[in-house]
Specification:
Elements: H1 10-36, E1 64-66, E2 69-71, H2 74-88, E3 92-97, E4 100-105, E5 110-120, H3 126-139, E6 177-184, E7 189-196, E8 199-200, E9 229-231, H4 236-239, E10 240-244, E11 248-254, E12 259-278, E13 281-296, H5 300-305, E14 308-310
Antiparallel strand pairs: 1-2, 3-4, 3-14, 5-13, 6-7, 7-11, 8-10, 9-12, 10-12, 11-12, 12-13
Helix pairs in contact: 1-3
Length: about 300
């Protein structure tokens, strides 16, 4: 069944575009550097088609009572997560944003992007590795956001462009969960960790990853705008694979109020490009491992760097 494609609101669109531009710049630079110089590290074997297996990276769920709340099934975990998520996103607080009074989500988080691995034809190169931090720093500038999925700090504007999908509420379900667990902290709070099922080319709000993280959406259409990049076989749809897998979200919940008081979301993305032509370099393959994180609450110093202060 074809997936409905829903355009994200401006803030998320900027994130998606930035992520893809970062990938293309690193791809182009790495192909040129690796093609013109010897590899500095051993070759990593290519991943065979169909080899990937979605596996749990966290402990399995154990039914029981945690923080005074009974959880008998994964469905209970999903329902409680959604209930607490929805309640937390009703809470707002006063902020000052570059001198202007604002009413943002009470729980604001930061965002960060890291390239964990970049290979061309299974090879890494120390020269391109040294360039990655500078390229990321010049292209990716994180902004405060609410609990993901979210593009905004302001709940009044946290919608998709068509206005039909609210990001103030979660649409996550038990069917989206690959693994989960709960820890009783003994102080009236619990820590819940969830790993959503893997998805290829995740779409916002349309699948397990898109209902849990700030996913990129369909980035293949952007390729046509990159004049230096083409393909020796097929097109972008045939040669670009974006796989989301292994990411987790960990939230701390006050069970007396059902408020999420802290959270860490770690989204992991594996990008494959095959049969890529970059200027005079022909028919190359590339892979990149990205890690995009959201931490709540955002540090006051980080917010101040963005011009935002809590009142």
């Amino acid at each position: 069944m074809a997936k409905t494609k829903i355009k994200a609101k401006t803030g998320l669109s900027k994130l998606n575009k930035a992520l893809f531009i970062i990938f293309i710049i690193l791809l182009v630079a790495t192909i040129l550097i690796v093609a013109l110089s010897p590899a500095k590290v051993p070759v990593k074997p290519a991943e065979e088609a169909g080899e990937f297996e979605d596996v749990a990276v966290i402990d399995e769920f154990v039914p029981g009572t945690y923080g005074g709340v009974e959880f008998t099934s994964v469905e209970d975990v999903a329902n409680y997560y959604v209930e607490c998520f929805n309640y937390t996103k009703t809470l707002t607080a006063p902020y000052t944003d570059n001198g202007e009074a604002k009413n943002y989500y009470k729980l604001l988080g930061d965002e960060n992007l890291e390239v964990k691995e970049l290979l061309i034809e299974g090879k890494a190169n120390s020269t391109i590795n040294s360039l990655v931090p500078g390229i990321l720093g010049s292209l990716f500038n994180g902004h405060p956001k609410g609990l993901p999925p979210a593009a905004e700090a302001d709940p009044l504007t946290d919608y998709r462009d068509d206005g039909t999908i609210q990001q103030q509420v979660s649409h996550f379900t038990a069917e989206d969960i690959l693994a989960c667990n709960i820890v009783d902290n003994g102080d009236g709070t619990i820590t819940m960790t969830i790993q959503p099922k893997y998805v290829i080319l995740s779409m916002a709000d349309q699948d397990a990853q898109g209902r849990f993280f700030n996913v990129l959406g369909d980035i293949t259409g952007t390729v046509s705008q990159i004049s230096v990049l083409s393909f020796s076989q097929g097109d972008a749809n045939d040669n670009i694979t974006v796989r989301y897998a292994g990411g987790t979200g960990t939230v701390t919940i006050d069970t007396a109020t059902k408020e999420i008081t802290a959270a860490d979301y770690v989204m992991k993305v594996h990008l494959d490009v095959t049969h890529a032509n970059v200027t005079v370099i022909k028919d190359k393959s590339a892979t990149m491992e990205l890690e995009y994180t959201n931490h709540f609450p955002a540090d006051d110093e980080w917010l101040a760097e963005k011009g935002v202060t809590r009142n």
